[in-house]
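Assess the record.
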Amino acid sequence: MRFRSFDSLNIFRTVAEKMSFTAAGEALNMSKGAVSYQIAKLEDELGVPLFERRHTHIRLTGEGTRLRDAAAKHFGLIETVMDEIRSNVEQPFCVGAHSWFISRWLGSRLSDFTQNHPDIALRVEPINTTADLNNPMLDMTVFWCDAETGNRQGTHLYPSRTVPLANPEIAERAGEIGLANLVTEVPLLPDASGMEGWKLWHALAGFDYDPRHKSVHLPDANSRLQAVISGNGIALLDELAKPEIDSGLLKPISDIWLAGYGYYVIPSKNQGTSTAAIRFEEWLRDQPF
């Protein structure tokens, strides 16, 4: 007679591992009663008890132990084969990049890459913090950072300075109260690295770093841009904010730019250099910034 109760067998395997109907139910997102029913159903089909039910615990019978060992062996083999099948399915080449960089620069150019490399399946994953560099899904990252960090982890792609920007109303106040007072009284919006960029800018400007306002932390530069346009503070943004500067929506509050920053290509720590990675980086370097 063919065996058909594979769901019950998988539930049995979990109970045998946990040695508890309750714990098995929690692991399987089932009630204790539903687990007990499935085990009883399996025992009825086999015609032997698989567990000895005690008042405070359960234990496997001899037949239960034999079935547990056989189930572990064969379910393990099935899982191994499934992993092998998954690994043989081509996964898309996954590039991580700041959401700011994707929306401002990369997204509009991707059709050129896909047209020239139709054999490469590409996925772009938005990231915003250095912690995202450890994402095992990523085969490569395009990351904006300082030269020391970028050269330590990857290779330089494009330079991109950053400057403090405000909306026209706040920028006008610099002429009224002075720049030093402005950056003290108006909230300074931190970027993904916190306030390190602002501290460096204050040092270049010759100002003491002494902000009087706590501000909202917005790791996504697109969100910071909108906050600045709405008059919610001043933010350090790079040259990809040029459209808003040219249109007058935003104004630099000084001519002091933070140089030494830019976009870097950082390879995955978990993956070797693939053909897709080589082609994508070559394509990036051929694009005008």
User: Anything to note?
Assistant: The longest strand covers residues 140-146. The chain has 13 helices and eleven strands.
